[in-house]
Amino acid sequence: MKGEGQRSNAKCLAYVAAFVVFQTAIILIFALTVMRIKNPKVRFGAVTVENFSTGNSSSPFFDMRLMARVTVKNTNFGHFKYENSSIRILYGGMEVGEAAVVKARARARQTKKFDVTIDISSSKLSTNSNLGNDIASGVLPLSSEAKLSGKVHLMKVIKKKKSSEMSCTMGINLGTRTVQDLKCK
Ligand SMILES: *[C@@H]1O[C@H](CO)[C@@H](O)[C@H](O)[C@H]1NC(C)=O
Ligand SMILES: *[C@@H]1O[C@H](CO)[C@@H](O)[C@H](O)[C@H]1NC(C)=O
Ligand SMILES: *[C@@H]1O[C@H](CO)[C@@H](O)[C@H](O)[C@H]1NC(C)=O
């Protein structure tokens, strides 16, 4: 009788231990995946050029329209709701154009895509010392910046502030009127 009782006690303990291990594993997996909230990533997908007009190296200027596909990659298990923002295009560190980004949400584990139109012009530059050289080289170097600030919403209760920053560089090939070497960090 005594032996049987001990055996069933040991069996019971083994069940409890197995259950605890199982629960711990589930909680750990949950904590490492679902609960780990990461910053979404915003970047340019593709950029094309329209309404292109530039001067030569002795009277340098540029005016053009960039049509850009923007992607907001949200790897979280909850949606990312971001506020109104803007995307700025810079030449030599100075702003030459801007586009508004209207507040929206990127759904859980999806990449939201939208298009923006940005008119850029060298007339917005106060100094353009290197513009003649860049035009002579045939490639106009540009960069872009944006910051989307918002919250990742998890399971209707957890809201965590997150932001997504864009930092891309590209060159406008003045011969082919296309964007080359688009790189985003
Ligand atoms: C840009 O070009 C399109 C046609 O390609 C034209 O309809 C539009 O008026 C132009 N915009 C500007 C600002 O020149
Ligand atoms: C540059 O453009 C200006 C104005 O269009 C023109 O007068 C000048 O001759 C051009 N210079 C060269 C080197 O092509
Ligand atoms: C966001 O932008 C839209 C469109 O420009 C505007 O109507 C709205 O009032 C803005 N919302 C906020 C909170 O600024």
TrEMBL record:
Keywords: Membrane, Transmembrane, Transmembrane helix. The chain crosses the membrane at residues 12-35. It comes from the Eukaryota. InterPro entries: Lea14-like_2, LEA_2. Residues 70-169 form the Late embryogenesis abundant protein LEA-2 subgroup domain. Gene3D superfamilies: 2.60.40.1820. The keyword Transmembrane applies. The keyword Cell membrane does not apply. This is Late embryogenesis abundant protein At1g64065-like. The lineage of its organism: Eukaryota, Viridiplantae, Streptophyta, Embryophyta, Tracheophyta. The gene is LOC110420425.
